[in-house]
Amino acid sequence: MPWTSTNRIYAKPSNTSGGEGVAIVAAPSSARAAPTAAADTGGRFELSDHGYGKSCVKLLHVYRDGEYHAIREYDVSTELKLTSESPYVIGDNKDVVATDSQKNTVYLLAKKHGVKTPEEFGAVVVNHFLYTYKQVGEAKCRVVEYPWERLQAGAPHNHAFIFSPAATRWCEVSQVRHDAVVVKSGLSGLRVLKTTQSAFVDFVQDEYTTLADAAERIFSTVVEAEWTYDSMRTADFDNAWLTVKDAILEKFAGPPDTGVYSPSVQHTLYQAEKMVLEKVSEISWIKMTMPNKHYLNIDMSKFPANVTKGDPRHHIYQPIDKPAGLIYAQLRRRPKSHL
User: Using CA atoms, how far apart are residues 32 and 9, in angstroms rounded to an integer?
Assistant: First the structure.
């Protein structure tokens, strides 16, 4: 029986007619298998990474304080890395915390501790797994928040909310046993567009170039951003997320009456990142990605004037999804000199 675990005790039915007795027998020593992939393969291979968990655990937390209610809806994913390779190498599950148990843990921890921010809840989850199960060497938790806002009906409504998906908030919290908690927060899906004060000129012109200078163009992108914190103890996670979002919008759009000029996507991206680091001292680095969402001028000169004549305030563009330019940068604080 090559699939027999060497670390288990098996119950064998007795030969009695009542079938009530059992005989406890140990698995045969001949079935002993290698505990690591390296040992199992004679040093030829190694299990360089592994882990397992429960993805997309849906959670709605409602906090009822009299007539005033608050909600946060999360999509929670957990991941554990065991110190043992036995589940993979010899199929021994004695150290495996079932993914269904991980799902249950998410609900029970939310009930016990409540839910404040995605980052703090993620830290509660990873800390629980490391504290409860000594066989877990590393725990991770990803939390995606659904963008609910309180309904404004002349005044903030006590218990009604509206889904407002301008941007999605997420975080990834991880901790290796005996190390500090690592928190990465993020923003995704923030789609923005402005119809003027954007240009792209004076770039390389050579035998491969067909793109003309654009002194005036539509600027549209879908912003993705992620950042980490120096310290989890002092961070205000809600404020940090809102500050990142506001910095992106401010450097993209500018004042409502005059706007702000953008000579390139790169420049706008950098200005937003710089503002974030200047305003949130706990953030150690921030990375943003801004893909171009092109809106191309339609050449009306090919058509006779009698069919194109109309109100000169009407301007028509063709949206183009692919291919698209992709611009990104990461801005971090320079290490302080100890001299």
Answer: 14
